[in-house]
């Protein structure tokens, strides 16, 4: 990107109020939410395609962000969409 790691870390903090790890975690969880809402992939596949090496990591982070399990999120989204 043409920036030193220190400069990039400072820019991320200024823009998001967090650090690189926080930003990456939110991006992964957001990707998982999209996959849960738009596909019939298994939880293992959702975890893998979201950048998690295991479903337990996905479950833990997903619950922190959305306050529910990935399975609950999928059920709610599908109910709202009429699927």
Outline the structure in words.
With 83 residues, this protein is mainly α. It has one domain: Arc Repressor Mutant, subunit A. Helices cover 75% and strands 0% of the residues. The chain has 5 helices and no strands. The protein has helices at residues 5-16, 20-38, 43-49, 55-66, 70-81. Helix 2 (20-38) packs across helix 3 (43-49) and helix 2 packs across helix 5 (70-81). It is elongated, with a radius of gyration of 15 Å.
Task: Write down the CATH class.
Answer: Mainly Alpha
| Structure class | mainly alpha
Helical content stands at over 70%
Radius of gyration: 15 Å
In what range is the share of β-strand residues? under 5%
What is the subunit arrangement here?
Answer: single chain
DSSP E strands, number: 0
The CATH topology assignment is Arc Repressor Mutant, subunit A
Mean pLDDT: 89
CATH architecture: Orthogonal Bundle
Main beta sheet: strand number and arrangement? none
Could you state the CATH homologous superfamily? Homeodomain-like
Q: Would you identify the regions where 5 or more consecutive residues have pLDDT less than 50?
A: none
N-to-C span: 42 Å
Q: So how many helices?
A: 5
Shape: elongated
Number of domains: 1
Keywords: DNA-binding, Transcription, Transcription regulation
InterPro entries: Homeodomain-like_sf (IPR009057), HTH_AraC (IPR018060)
GO molecular function, one term: DNA-binding transcription factor activity
Protein name: Helix-turn-helix transcriptional regulator
